Amino acid sequence: MSTPTTALPAGAALGFSYEYGLDVDLNYDAGAATPTEPNWQPVRRASAIAPTAPPITATAQSYDDLGAPNDQKTSESWALAFTALVNRLASGLYAPEIEALKKYTEPDAIGTASIAHVRWYDKPASGAPNPNDAYEGFCSVSFDRGNTGNADTGSWSFTLTGQGRRIQIANPFTGWAPSTPVVTSVLPSGAAAGELVTIKGTGFSAVTGADGVKFGAANAADYEVVSPTVIVASLPTGSAGAANVVVKSPAGSSAPFTYTRGA
User: How many Cβ atoms are within 10 Å of 246's Cβ, its own excluded?
Assistant: First the structure.
């Protein structure tokens, strides 16, 4: 008999509620004679994305159950709720994904004209997405105007009600495009060769390689990317005075940040 483990594997990280994505197919028309290739548009400024899929069951009870219930899943009834901020374009229209969903709720959106095509999936802020947590489906759409206070930021509260079962798909999220690093501070000032300095900024998650951090013309003797906004580096050998700090990633190099070093 094996003993259950209570510790998570090394490298396990805590997930956050905002690490989920939702896309709307801008091309979908259930009544079209010829299906069109999906044009997936992410729903931006979304929050509270909450998919549900309660099972539909039928009794399979028999004498062998000795009077106990025996309900087995025969299908499911999925739905997805979320909110999105009201973003207005110069034309007066809302964001394209909101306009796409809104059209399925108009007075003449009857029958197939009321069906939308959407997908939703795990979308972590960093690291690999869960390959099994991704679905698409066809649904009806309803919405309410939210945040109606005088000083509130306008929002929409949407409910998508599934038409048929969900379809499990390969997770379409392949990771965030790396951003060019930006250095905002290097502390403490006056550090000497071999001492540690903390570099703060943004876009550090993809920084790798021997030339990822440079002080003047010299590569950092050693460095560690602590987070996307923090690098701890060992100052290489060099002369006292000004030394431009540059952080390099596949997306490009940061603008030089002037640092005053000791001997």
Answer: 18
